[in-house]
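SEQUENCE-TO-STRUCTURE ENTRY
===========================
Question of interest: how does this chain fold, as expressed in backbone structure tokens?
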Amino acid sequence: MTSEQSPDPESASEQTNAPRRAGFAYAFGRMLITPLARMVYRPRVEGRENVPKDGPVIFASNHLSFIDSIAIPVAAPRPVHFLAKSSYFEGTGFRGALSRIFFTSIGAIPVRRGAGQAALDALDQQKQLLDDGLTVALYPEGTRSDDGRLYKGRTGVAFLALETGAPVVPVGLIGTDRMMPRGAKMPSLRVRVTVKFGEPLDLSTHGAASSGRARRQATDDIMAAIHALSGQELAGVYNEPPAHTPIEKIKQALPHERR
């Protein structure tokens, strides 16, 4: 998973080592970057009191812009971890160092894209963070919405919640697509975004993580809560790249679980 993707076999990490925890760079970033970002961009934040003060938490958010992965850590009352493309951490020279410092300071954990076992490794990284009582931020849609609609959720987030028992705090982001649309190099100072934290969801009543039906029902509950916060038009389909080959078209047409 990248900062634009939920944990699914199509895009995730190849890393098997334990995820890095927030250290000095993140503490420094929260002390310096967070107040500065709040002062400059003046985000409207609602529902901070809904975020549990301790214990594991999964932030499940809609996804409209690259800046979503900055807006959530800036607005959240607790440190937030999320998986980001390893390329953000691998640059050379001054720009590479600046990129590493910045993404580390906002709680990003580097992962490589992959499939199959790599997807399971990404889920394992997030599970380790939750088992340690930390927080993770995920996008159930899988990738950002280019048309502003809210797409169907993939079940990876629900799997983590059911597997770990962590409560899910739904997040509704409004205006991030106008603040920093796809292709923009810098966020606009003329747009204010809204970050809404909903009440925690206890999904354990749906059953075990091993049940596909439980994962689907839990995912639908998560997406309904996000929709109530964001007010987006519902797409009613998964946000998937266009199928270019007959095999890809068949795979998308056949019923299967999107994780």
Summary: The first strand starts at residue 44 and ends at 46. The radius of gyration is 17 Å. The CA atoms of residues 167 and 202 lie 6 Å apart. Strands lie at 44-46, 57-61, 82-85, 108-111, 135-138, 168-174, 194-197.
